[in-house]
Amino acid sequence: MDELQRLIWEGENDSVDFKQRVTKPEKIARTMVSFANTRGGVILVGVKDNGYVTGVDPEEEKHTLQLAADFYCDPPVQLLYEEMEQDSGKVVLKVTIPESAHKPHFAKLKEDDWRGYVRVKDTSVQTSKMVDKVLQQEPEQFEPLPLNRHEEAVLEYLRLHQRVTLRQFMKLANLSERRAYRTLVKLVIHGYLLLHDKEKEDYYTLV
């Protein structure tokens, strides 16, 4: 099995995204930013969501991709291109976005509206200002887990209760606000928790 087949077979996940075509730079910028802010990833252009290979004209796609990376991502996101040809002659453009050393990155939704994203499973999830701040201050903290006792404690709590707030977790784990923030953000980044920040007070649930 070659690399392209393997990536398609594994499906979309926290480090792979399929796109049949790239037509809207503002839309693909969210995916780029989410990979750069998390652990990096690959966009396969010329592949439908179901894994069917349609193929693309790589040069045409590169133009829109580069436009998105340079003008719809702040700071701009690095892209690495590789053209992968199938036996049928169809070409898939593999776009690699490395994990960034300059987090957080923001994607432009419209004029003067820039938002941060992280990759959780196969989705680009919008971040809150709190997540952006932690990414900026301590990007090196997101290392491969095993979970520590505080992380285990919040997951155990959420198996019994529907949601937890920062204040509840601080009390539960007897942690300072800063350490509690870091722990919760780390679990969001690694796909254990979902952050809900549209309410009066942010809260977290299990994914």
TrEMBL record:
Residues in the signal sequence: none
Keywords from the named record: DNA-binding
Gene3D superfamilies: Schlafen, AAA domain
The keyword DNA-binding belongs to this UniProt entry's keyword annotation: yes
DNA-binding keyword on record: yes
Name by which UniProt lists this protein: Putative DNA-binding protein
Family annotation (PANTHER family): GLPR-RELATED TRANSCRIPTIONAL REPRESSOR (PTHR30595), SCHLAFEN ALBA-2 DOMAIN-CONTAINING PROTEIN (PTHR30595:SF6)
Schlafen AlbA-2 domain ranges (all copies): 12-126
One Pfam family here: SLFN_AlbA_2
GO molecular function annotations of the record: DNA binding
